[in-house]
Amino acid sequence: MKESKLWMVLSLFITCCIAAFALSQVYAITKPKIDYQRQVAGLRTALGAVMPEADRFEPANSDSTVWFAYAGEQRIGTVIRAAKQGYAGPVPVTAGIDLEGKIVAIRVASSAEGLKETPGLGLKATEEKFRDQFKGKTSSELRLKKDGGTIEAITGATITSRAVTDAIREAMEKYQDIIKSNE
After folding, report:
1. Cα separation of 83 and 156, whole Å?
2. Antiparallel, parallel or unpaired: β 90-98 and 56-59
3. What pLDDT is attached to residue 180?
4. pLDDT band at 71 (very low <50, low <70, confident <90, very high)
5. Residues of 99-124 as b/e, b for ≥16 C-beta within 10 angstroms?
6. DSSP 64-117
7. What are φ and ψ of residue 163, in 5° steps?
8. What is the percent of the chain with per-residue pLDDT over 70, rounded to a whole number?
9. What's the pLDDT tens digit per position in 5-62?
10. At 58, is the secondary structure helix, strand, or coil?
């Protein structure tokens, strides 16, 4: 029987089932660890991108949206994450704010991090040209030009532009609440 075609097919099927079961068990065991490492690496990248002078970050609250940035032992700013509804889903942004309450830099999440905006239009929010408009701005300046502010919207992606601007303004308001609560 070991030389028959039926035995060869059956033994191949059993081998494949055992291999599939073993791979699924390895995946189930390693997936939480891989997700955690990916999340931590993404968080460090986002925090470092908006506050490049900082060498460490400490959480400022329990909801993991606000971090204090330090260079050595001196606090140099605050990093806040926020998200507002864009055209195709939430637009997650991270803002670095210096001690004077001005934006150092912003970072808009990439498609790999959950940004679902339209390629070619909404994804232009991740480009440096759009992001650089926010540098040095205060909370009162954070509105699109068509809404009376100083931020130029991306042509054809006004909803995404407004979502980024509103999320950054929300981050600035959260920053001001933190400053008031520490006084």
Report:
1. 20
2. unpaired
3. 75
4. very high
5. eeebbbbbbbbeeeeebebeeebbbb
6. SSEEEEEETTEEEEEEEEEEEE-SSSEEEEEEEEETTS-EEEEEE--GGGT--P
7. -60, -45
8. 98
9. 899 999 999 999 999 999 999 999 999 998 888 877 878 888 888 999 999 998 887 7
10. strand
Distance of alpha carbon 75 from alpha carbon 57, whole angstroms: 9
Phi-psi region of 148 (alpha: psi -120 to 50; beta: other; left: phi over 0): left
Question: The pTM is what?
Answer: 0.75
What is the per-residue pLDDT for 2? 61
Please give the DSSP secondary-structure letter assigned to residue 152: P
Q: Which amino acid is at 164?
A: V
Q: Are 104 and 96 within 8 A, CB to CB?
A: yes
b vs e for 22-45, b when ≥16 Cβ sit within 10 Å of the residue's Cβ? Answer: eeeeeeeeeeeeeeeeeeeeebee
Contact status, residue 74 vs residue 82, Cβ threshold 8 Å: no
Q: How many CA atoms lie within 13 A of 119 on its CB side?
A: 2
Question: Of residues 133 and 123, which shows the higher confidence score?
Answer: 133
pLDDT of residue 43: 81
